[in-house]
Design goal:
9 strands; 9 helices; alpha+beta; five-stranded mixed sheet; 355 residues; Heat Shock Protein 90
């Protein structure tokens, strides 16, 4: 190996001890280098693993967002299809019912006048010929003429009321769907709620052993608000329909309470004092509360109530889209809020805020 001067003062010929020392040093250096390389490789692997985990988390977030968007799109498509189907149904029903009922309603007045004229003619005959023939007298008794004179005006009046009722239902259907009002416009909220209640009248009344549902209306003084009328009516329909379902197995009293009011923005509602030094109009919200005294829900259920396809009804009893669509209409379409407050054994209340 020649001379070795690693730790001698003067160059010397290496001994076997020196060679062993050098070999040991080289071995230790090799171990140190390999260890450093292993640590570097491990560090790089840890970095790569963290980056891979981050990518997977990002993929999971992206997938979740995509899934949410798909659900949102699906509910929107279903809502659009439902409203389109409703529009076609209303147009068909309104056309098929409105024309014949117009004839009936319009002709009832003339029929009443004709009856009065005929009755007056018969009275004149009776006055002119007081002694009628036995055949005429027998016929009057057979047809119960006195009863006809008393009952026919009542029949005409009841038919008039019935035809007006049909007119009212057709008008409610038109106002409920508001197919010609797809844009924002000023709307009377109370009229929309009342029209919806009229369409749900059959589900609210008593039937067989099922008691009637009492509707308590506590309407505030609301101005017309700017909204999408047909879609807001769909919100009322979904919430009231949900309340009626919640009372299916409920004994008397079965009550739905509807309250409306105007409140100022959330800051003022929480502080109970006006905004100091405000030079701008304070934003106001129309509040619609729809409550039932049914069985209520657990807190866990009420937190999921607006999720698409979530339903508390038995299989086949609902799609789980009604409240999801309601949330979408209120929050996304009208930039409002909707909350559900439910207590087991006491009932459920939905609170809608429309700016």
């Amino acid at each position: 190996m020649g001379t070795f001067a690693g730790y001698y003062d003067q160059p010397q010929t290496s001994t076997s001890l020196d060679r062993r020392l050098i070999a040991q040093t080289l071995y230790l250096a090799k171990i140190a280098i390999e260890r450093q390389r292993s640590q570097q490789a491990l560090h790089q692997s840890e970095i790569a693993l963290r980056q891979s985990e981050a990518r997977e988390r990002e993929k999971a977030r992206t997938l979740e967002q995509t899934l949410d968007q798909l659900k949102h799109t699906q509910t929107q498509l279903i809502q659009n299809e439902k409203m389109s189907s409703l529009g076609r149904m209303v147009a068909g029903v309104a056309h098929e019912i409105n024309n014949p009922i117009s004839f009936i309603h319009g002709n009832l007045t003339y029929a009443g006048q004709y009856f009065q004229s005929l009755n007056r003619l018969i009275e004149l005959y009776q006055q002119t010929y007081p002694n009628s023939t036995p055949e005429i007298q027998q016929f009057l008794e057979d047809i119960e003429w006195e009863f006809i004179l008393e009952d026919l005006p009542k029949l005409m009046a009841s038919m008039q009321v019935g035809s007006e009722r049909i007119f009212q239902i057709v008008r409610s259907l038109r106002k409920f769907s508001r197919l010609d009002e797809a844009e924002l416009k000023l709307v009377d909220i109370h009229e929309g709620i009342d029209n919806t209640l009229l369409l749900l009248h059959n589900r609210l009344r008593a039937e067989g052993s099922r008691p009637a549902i009492k509707v308590i209306k506590d309407y505030g003084s609301l101005p017309p608000i700017t909204c999408y009328a047909s879609e807001l009516n769909q919100v009322f329909m979904n919430l009231l329909d949900n309340a009626i379902d919640a009372l299916n197995s409920q004994p008397e009293p079965r009550v739905i309470t509807i309250c409306t009011s105007i409140e100022t923005e959330e800051w003022e509602r929480k502080s109970h004092s006006p905004i100091p030094n405000s030079q701008f109009p304070i934003p106001q919200f129309v509040i619609i509360r729809i409550a039932d005294n049914g069985e209520g829900m657990s807190e866990a259920m009420s937190q999921q109530i607006f999720d698409p396809f979530f339903t508390t009804k038995p299989i086949g009893g609902g799609t789980g889209l009604g409240l999801a669509i309601t949330h979408q209409i209120v929050v996304e379409k009208h930039k409002g809020k909707i909350n559900c407050v439910s207590v087991l054994g006491q009932g459920t209340e939905f609170i809608v805020e429309i700016p």
